[in-house]
Each structure stands twice: as structure tokens, then as C-alpha cells.
Amino acid sequence: MLHKKKIINYRSINRILFLLIFMFSSFTFFSQEKKDSIFVHFDYNKSSLESSEIQKINRFVETFIQDSILNIFIEGHCDNSGTDEHNHKLSAFRTNTVSDILLQRINKTNLISNSFGETKPIASNETEQGKVQNRRVLIVCNHIEKLAEPAIVTPIVSADTSKKEVKINGEKIEIGKNIVIKDLNFIGGRHTLVQTSEYALEKLLSVMKDNPTLEIEIQGHICCSPPDEDGWDSDSQDNNLSVNRAKAIYDYLVDHGIDSNRMSYKGMIARFPLVKPELTESDRNKNRRVEVKILKY
Known about the structure:
Layout: H1 2-30, E1 31-41, H2 51-61, E2 69-76, H3 84-103, E3 110-115, H4 128-134, E4 136-146, E5 167-168, E6 171-172, E7 178-185, H5 198-210, E8 215-220, H6 241-255, E9 263-267, H7 281-287, E10 289-296
Parallel strand pairs: 2-3, 8-9
Antiparallel strand pairs: 1-4, 2-4, 5-6, 7-10, 8-10
């Protein structure tokens, strides 16, 4: 009788082992590593994206479960227009644009980016159509595909609203909040931007295109003047330097397709310096700036 009980126990153990092996093999079957990729394309000599290309990135990300993403590789490319140095910088700006869009949608993922300038064309640069194909960023997503579950990314939602969280320069936008546009600086005494400000300007344009309900007030600031006086503008030959700086950003956004009804501009003269006293050129440069005030979202 004791011997028979042992046989029954062995059989039970065998059944349990069989079920465990089946469960683990089923898990392997229903969860597998997969790689997906897309291209987004840029206009000539631009590092900002049209809204249709931004939507393409968002749809691509929404295909995956957020926690299943292993890493994302981003590669920036150019056509052969311009110098090698220019094209390398431009391709880097393009990867940064795509990274910023992805980071608004994805948390806890490893973004790996690289830029190749004009060195890796996928089409001939002898034709305009070929150049269009080469002005691109490749996005490659390595992720775990869970076949038994729908692959949906949950949008990031603010605590007090159903809209997705949007950031400018890493700061979450809130109605009434002022945000300094980093690296958007002007030549002293002029409303002309320094050359290195191009990327910051295109990032602001991308945010405005990607969020069509966003309304802002553009505020121009100056240095080196009494707090109740505007500065002399060498470009326009008038005493409206802070106003002209704000209007320069406003005009750029309007010229690139942003509805003027979504924006206003205002000169803040020298009332709100970021650095005081202005002891160095670096101090003065920080005060020659533009901020945006969030009016509606």
C-alpha cells in the first residue's frame, strides 16, 4: 500500500513538471524580441519637422508597450549640399529634434543617437528626389513583443488635465508660466540672433507645430539699460530693442506656418534680468533673451 502511494506521488510530480515546462515554453512563444524602424524626412537645410512627420513618430511609438522597449537607435543624415562640417552639425540637430519628440512620449528607455552627415546616402544625390530621401533620420526600436496583449503606449497625462504633458527646454508647460528659451540669444544692440541660436528656434517651432492648441506670449528682454528704458536697436534704428527681439521670434514662427492668432509679442525692456549685476559679457548675453509665457493649452 505504501509502495502504491509512492507511485501515485511520482505521477503527480511528473504532471506538475510537464505543466511547468509547458507554461515556460508558452511564455517564450508569447513574448519575443523584435526590431521595427521608420524614416522621417526633413526639408532642405532644416532640422525642424513638418507636423505630418511628427505625427508619424507619435504613431510609431504608440505601436509599442512602453515597458517593453529595450532601446531606440536614432541616426541623422543629410544630402551632399553644404560642407562636411555643416552637414555633420545639421545631422546632429536632426537627431536632437527626433530625440526631443520621443522623450515627450517615452520614459525609462535608452535613446542612442548618432549623426553621419552626408556619408551614408540611401539614394543618389544627383537627383532632387534622391536628396529628399537622404535628408532623413532613421529610428530603430528594439522591443519585446507581447503577442497575447495589445501593444499600446499610455500617454503621459498631467495631474489636472487629460492632455499629454508637454515640455519646452525640459520644463513642463503650465498656463501663466514663463519659460526661458535656452540658447536663444542676440547680438548686442541688435534684434539679430547669434548663429548658434538656430537649433533652439527650430525646437520652439516644433513644439508649436506639435501642439496646435498652445498659445503663447513672446517676451523680449535686453541688457545694459535702465529698467524703465528700452534699448537702441542698430538694425531698425529705433529705441524698441526688446520689442523688436520678441517680434523677430514672432515673425519667424508666422513665416514657418504658425497661426498669428496663437501668439502675441511684448517688450519687457530690462526690468527682469536673469543676472545682476552684469559684470561679464556672459552675464549680459544671458539677459539678451526671449521668454515665452503660456497663455492657453
